[in-house]
Amino acid sequence: MTVSIRPLHPMFCGEVHGIDMTEPMTREDVAVIEAGMDEYAVLVFHGQNITDEPQQAFTRNFGDLERPGAVSNITKDHERRLDPLMADVSNLDSEHKPFRRNDRQRMFSLGNRLWHSDSSFRAIPAKYSLLSGRIVPSRGGNTEFADMRAAYDALDESTKAELEELVCEHSLLNSRGKLGFEGLSDAERANFKPVRQRLVRTHPVTGRKSLYLSAHIGTIVGWQTPEARIFLQDLTEDATRTEFVHRHQWRQYDLVMWDNRQVMHRARRFNDVDDVRDMRRTTVAGEQMTVEQAA
Ligand code: OGA
Ligand code: MN
Description:
The protein is α+β, with helices and mostly antiparallel strands. Helix content is 24%, strand content 22%. The protein has a single domain (4-284), classed as Clavaminate synthase-like (Double-stranded beta-helix, 4-Layer Sandwich).
């Protein structure tokens, strides 16, 4: 079957037809998807009724898998519901029951409702994320994407020049701190040490520039924090205005793949105390740092 991509939005996001993820991919299929990712930055595949193993195999077509684990979460190994290579983006505990309202892991995962780019808090941040909707809630729980290339392009020339060389500090402590999440242990804090990322990225294939914003940012290197935060808040507000945003409304067995170097995303609210949303993410590791790290 030949692969084709239909645009879903005037600027980005495409819907892919002609792929069955339970089958091995040909090199040609992989090349079409990669080119589609470069162009659309977000691709939607419907009707992919897969388990974790084929999801991982499909993901490996695009590079090495990033391991979730201690850097990115507070979940202890024995509390994990899924294989160590799967990021559990569900609202379920290890017994497959929705977390109770006050559960600490539930509080932590509310951070996904802030605009972010996956693993921007790692020295080498993620390339692609692939999110598989195994069980979707009856209402709500959409995922939204914002095109950071379009957001960059829309800036005036003097702002572009001002941003060009700026470097930000990213850490999970910042996104969780924004929500008032407290009570991290010293070991958890040590894991969440800030890393540096450029604020303007250039795509290695297309050469397009984009804004590398994320809720994980705490400050801009060399700036006072209040000025950095209000500046970034203004930029984020502009970068996520309606015209740059695509809303994905989940159907069961959708798989959505996005390029973290070119878009931000966020989860939207649903009744997660009663309803089930079983979403599982595999992540393609990035290939390089965006800037040298501080010693
Ligand atoms: C993720 C994520 C958003 C969602 O998987 O990285 O942020 O809607 N997911 O679950
Ligand atoms: Mn995410």
